[in-house]
Amino acid sequence: MNKPIRTISVFCLLLFVALMANVTKLQVFDAPELAESKYNKRVIDEQFSRERGAILVGRDPVAQSVPVESRYEFQREYPQPRLYAHVTGRFNYYGSTGLERSQAEVLSGDDSRLFVNRVVDMLANRSPKGGNVELTIDAAAQKAAYDGLSALPGKVQGAVVAIEPKTGKVLAMVSLPSYDVNKLADHDLNNVNKVHDKLNADPTQPLVNRATQLRLPPGSTFKLVTAAAAMEYEGYSSTSQVPGGDTYQLPGTKGETGEIDNGGRSCGKKKVSFAQAMGQSCNTTFAQLAVEVGGKNMAKQATKFGFGKVYLDDLDQVESNFPADTDPAETGQTGIGQFEVAATPLQMAMVAAGIANDGVVMKPYLVDELSTPSLNVLDQNDPKELSRATSAKTAKQLTDLLVATVDSGTASPAAIRGVKVAGKTGTAQSGIDHVPPYAWFTSYAPAYDPEVAVAVMIQSADVDRGEVAGGKLGGPIAKAVMEAVINR
Amino acid sequence: MGFVHRSRRGAELFLLLIALAVGIGAYAAVGLGVQGEIPVDILTYGGWLSALVLVCHVTLRFTAPYADPVLLPLVAALNGLGLAVIHRIDLARGRFDGGLAQQQLVWMTLGVGLFVATMVVVRDHRLLQRFTYTSALAALVLLLLPMVPGIGHSTLGANIWIKIGGMTFQPGEIAKVLLVITFAGYLVQHRDALALAGRRVLFVDLPRGRDLGPILAMWLVCIGILGVQKDLGSALLFFGLFLVLLYVSTERSGWLVVGGILFVVGATAAYTFFGHVQNRVRIWRDPMDYYQSLPGSGQLVDSMFGMAWGGLMGRGFGEGKPWLIPVVESDFIIAAIGEELGLTAVMALLLCYGLIVERALRTALICRDGFGKLLATGLGAVIALQVFVVIGGVTGLIPLTGLTTPFLSYGGSSLIANWIIVALLARVSDHARKPPPDLTPHAAPDDSESTQVVRLR
């Protein structure tokens, strides 16, 4: 019987070899994939328990981890939850958003630049600590933006973005309505779910970052792009006479639907000065200019300012839209920021910033500096050029027009004593019945040595339909933000 | 036969000390890792464990001095480590006093008692051959017990427990040992008839019905019972066991072919007719897709997560989360070990099991009587198959079927049965390794033609 016993021995050997091979495959080769499974509580728990780095504005943390006596060792805490909700995003058991997500590698300590720290922590038998992320945000500007928007009556929906034109640093980014991020970072996961479901179901969409994730017709603020295109492609200058008139019938249309007017503002008979057209935000002028420039060149100009591009690495961003292949009537409408033109507040801030910066659009960024847990600098973000939107000459002339618009035109609410301010209002038809128009305002200051460019967008506030106007609602907010930066 | 085995009891004692170091060391490590201090009862615990192991050793010295010296240390190491891991899970689940580890220690004590009793009572394994039919009957009765209303007890969908006075017991574990005795006894008695008499049908020599019939019937009944009780793991175990012993006793590889075909037919039939078999297979093929369904792959995937989390070196005692794995104390204990002690420990454990099987089969090879050969082969095969089915199941190699990991898993019936298996293996190995009886004391020295040829194998 020995021969079959030997055969059985070989068979048993094979069984054990198979087991060993499979266990090795599972514990070594499949392990990374298993660690990524969304069902893997161990990995989630471990990340959730870790001491993450802080997100800093200036020297103050706007997101930090504090030790707690709970089954998770650290609690993520947001000292100014509503003010920075959309910038920091949230970090909770179910995932993360905003900078908490885009900077997760550094904050959790997994980043390769923190390798040495990890090794030191490991040798010292400490649990690894994450690095810090310092933001470009200016605390005063952020607060001015938030307070300004919140001061509007009713349940405000809107956003403010401020950019440093020369670098692309985002100085302020506020979206309303905001929410208490701390409630979404709770260790009581049931509560987190409840709060999240409630916020998610809220028709005013507090979870949406309106500054980068919502695109709306930009209305008259888009006239900056139209004016730039007219100068770049049609040879206009700030002293040119431009087409005007009380009404303008879009090419190929008949009757009232194709007729554009100026809402009673004075825009000359046939011709009007560029300064007056900009100062009075003449629809007839900019519609005609757009038709002159043509759909193709309008699209080119919009693209140079960043339309149709993703350029923000730090947060979720939707691309702003300029329609392709428009017919002349549609092109006319795009000239005043209607038809299918849609822009995020960030995009409109970049248009203003690009003109302010001699026509060069800088890539916007929110992270200034990365540092180790002990605040040694790991990495510094350098400003990068995104595109050249206009020549320096065009930019200078546009600035002249916009300064005039603040000095004696519709943008006067943003005027700051002793400082030259460039600005443009906008009131955009929503295109939906019973929905009031959107109020826009873009500006920068000081006009000839700009420190800050701002875009304000008010999607809705408790204001009578007739009262909605970019200058009246947005102007003071933009002014407050600019002052905060200039006076720092 | 020129080679004479030495008894090697001293080597066994040395290995036992290492095994004790593993068991007691692991217990201390659990205390350090989970509670930050060496457990206060380390002396009583260690003393008790050492006493149990030494009792076994002394028993072997007196009753089976030539028994295989590696077997007992391997078993002691496995049992000791199992206790420590169960204790670790006790702590994780908040069972600070008593707990399952203490119960397991009681079961181990009982197991050692049965080991000693077996060694003392069964002085020669050939004695067991007389009980071929008795043990067949006993095995059947034990297998049927869970189906008796009143004492039958169902857990997690399998009706394989009995419950008497709050104590649950899995009679199938004992039936396993009895069946090995039955199969071995019957097959050794009928092996010539099975191997020689019969008709040839399609390249296969089929034995006569009266030779194979009874044991085949017996086996079919067992598989049937297990099928009704939804105990797939044990059914697979019994099938494999029967096949192995039939093949070894008849020395005809044709039986493996027949068995293979029968396995495919049976597996297909089970898959076709039983929904729960289909579920198991589906879950096994795409465990990630069924994580949240019920019945789903939750257990399996959680076990895989745990083992992957452990990686090569493991998280260390107290650093893992073995409580996230369901029934981790019994079927899934290997996952807890994989998580906290890593691939290294799992490999070491597999080597321990492999060595036990190897010692059993080696015993079968050198054993002088057919019954002993079959008995040792059967017992070795039982351990090999059981380890393969359970560890293969919890690591996703084969579809998951519930079985315990010998000596490691929490569970009294399993532990007792396995200690008896070790006792029987020790008994057979003692017999096999003993110097052969001197059969020539009266031979006339001058008669060179009278040399007796004894067929030893």
For the structure shown, list the relevant keywords:
heterodimer; A: 488 residues; alpha+beta; Beta-lactamase; six-stranded mixed β-sheet; five-stranded antiparallel β-sheet; 19 helices; 19 strands; B: 457 residues; mainly alpha; three-stranded antiparallel β-sheet; two-stranded antiparallel ribbon; 4% strand
Describe this structure in words.
The complex is a heterodimer of chains A (488) and B (457). Chain A has helices spanning 2-29, 31-35, 41-49, 81-88, 98-102, 104-108, 115-123, 139-150, 181-184, 189-201, 210-213, 223-234, 274-279, 283-293, 295-305, 328-334, 345-356, 392-408, 470-486, and strands spanning 55-57, 60-67, 74-77, 91-92, 95-96, 132-135, 157-163, 170-176, 241-243, 247-249, 259-261, 271-273, 360-362, 367-371, 377-380, 385-388, 422-428, 438-445, 452-460. Chain A is α+β, with helices and mostly antiparallel strands and 488 residues long. Chain A is built from 19 helices and 19 strands. In chain A, helix 8 (139-150) runs antiparallel to helix 19, helix 12 packs across helix 15 (295-305) and helix 14 packs across helix 16 (328-334). Chain A has a domain at 212-366 and 382-486: Beta-lactamase (3-Layer(aba) Sandwich). In chain A, a hairpin with a 2-residue loop joins strand 4 and strand 5 (95-96). In chain A, 40% of the residues lie in helices and 18% in strands. The mean pLDDT of chain B is 87. Chain B has a domain at 1-121 and 312-366 and 407-434. Chain B is mainly α and 457 residues long. Chain B has helices at residues 9-35, 42-63, 71-92, 99-121, 132-144, 171-196, 209-228, 232-250, 254-273, 275-285, 298-310, 333-366, 370-394, 412-433, and strands at 152-155, 158-164, 167-169, 199-201, 204-206. Helix content of chain B is 65%, strand content 4%. Chain B is built from 14 helices and five strands. The chains are: A alpha+beta (488), B mainly alpha (457). Chains A and B meet through helix 1, helix 2 and helix 3 of A and helix 8, helix 11, helix 12 and helix 13 of B. Chain B: Pathway: Cell wall biogenesis; peptidoglycan biosynthesis. Chain B: This is peptidoglycan glycosyltransferase. Chain B: It holds the Pfam family FTSW_RODA_SPOVE. Chain B: The chain crosses the membrane at residues 38-58, 70-89, 104-122, 131-149, 169-188, 209-226, 232-248, 255-274, 332-353, 374-401, 407-426. Chain B: It is an enzyme of class 2 (transferase).
